Amino acid sequence: MREVLVLCTFWKSDYWESDKVAPYPKMSTKPVQHLKDMLPLAGIGVYTKGKGKDYTHQSPCFLIIKGITENEKGEPQFDFHYVSKMQGIKSSELLNKMGKQGLFFTVPGERVLSVLKESGIEPPIEWQKLLEIGSISAPSWQDWIGKRFLDILQQISNDDYEDRIAEILKALGFEVEQLGHRKEGEYPDGIAYAKDFAIIYDCKNSFNYSLKANDRRAIIKYIQDAKKKIKEQRGIEKSYFAIIAHSYSEVKNISDIEKETFSIGFLLTSEAMLYLLFKKISLGRSFLLANFEKLPSNQVITVENVEKVYGRGI
Asked: Is 51 helix (H, G, I), strand (E, B) or coil?
């Protein structure tokens, strides 16, 4: 199933309710470059807040994305057709359920349909058909991944989420020591070992995750204890930490954790984990764990970030 392009705005309270070309100044088309070969595309227009305006109470709209182009500055422009409003849900509610990732971003079609069903919203037939068009001639990277792993894009139990993240890390080539719900006491959810480094990771089975003070204190203790153990038992000097969640609402306090633990931190999403698995499957032996260290720290890692490190496409 194809991706859905989500476009956000705070310019007008009815911005998405008429056909137009939506410009996004000072942005890049790189995150959605791959969608150009899949047009027309199912889209959703949502209302956000900014510059003293708050339209988050407005209903989102079903859109059909007809074109993705750049202006003379290389800034993205989305040519869209308005289909209908999503009655019965506010833009803020929809974003909370899907997880906002920027002014525009993609969400797997399966995830969108699940959210709509959960909210009692029936998508227009013409819109829903676009999720299936071209699935044979233009396969998505998700087609490489089995249902067991794709399920982490949905709301599953905390234990299942931890187990499947551990399985993905093993499939990537890490030696994984799973802790979390499998061991009594206060521990991180696991430690992933490569040859020259280790990653102390903790799973957060939630959308729009925000690092609270209690989580921060717990994670700092996990890292400090685990680093000592890793050095004593494995002789590995270099340890990172990672938080893995469906999506994030903010990324505060990560720098504080890095300073107190002398460790670099990664913020990974469920989608980024699946994309890493796709790269492992498609690249085979060319997929190097050492390149994992090139992923950006202290920010949410996106599919685009993974592409920069491991290459784009199949």
From this structure: coil
pTM of model > 0.70: no
* Residue whose entry in the numeric block shows the structure tokens 């807040």: 49
Q: Provide the residue type at 149 as one letter.
A: F
Q: Would you call 94 helix, strand, or coil by DSSP?
A: helix
Residue whose C-alpha is closest to residue 99's, from 249, 237, 299, 200? 249
User: DSSP letter at 311?
Assistant: -
Provide CB contacts within 8 A for 250, sequence distance 6+: 210, 211
**Position 46, amino acid:** V
Phi, psi of 157 (to 5 degrees): -70, 160
Chain-centre distance for alpha carbon 207: 10
Partnered with residue 191 across adjacent β-strands are 177, 200
What stretches of 2-155 adopt beta strand conformation (E)?
A: 3-9, 20-23, 41-47, 49-50, 53-54, 61-70, 76-85, 104-108
Provide the token pair at 314.
């199949």
CB-CB neighbours of 40 under 10 Å = 17
Tens of each residue's pLDDT in the chain, 314 residues = 889 999 999 999 999 999 999 999 988 888 888 888 788 999 999 999 988 899 999 999 999 999 998 887 888 999 999 999 998 899 999 998 887 778 999 999 998 999 999 999 999 999 999 987 654 444 578 888 888 899 888 878 999 999 999 999 999 999 999 998 877 767 899 999 999 999 999 999 988 888 888 888 899 999 999 999 999 999 999 999 999 998 887 777 788 899 999 999 999 999 999 999 999 998 888 899 999 999 988 788 888 889 889 886 55
DSSP letter assigned to residue 57? T
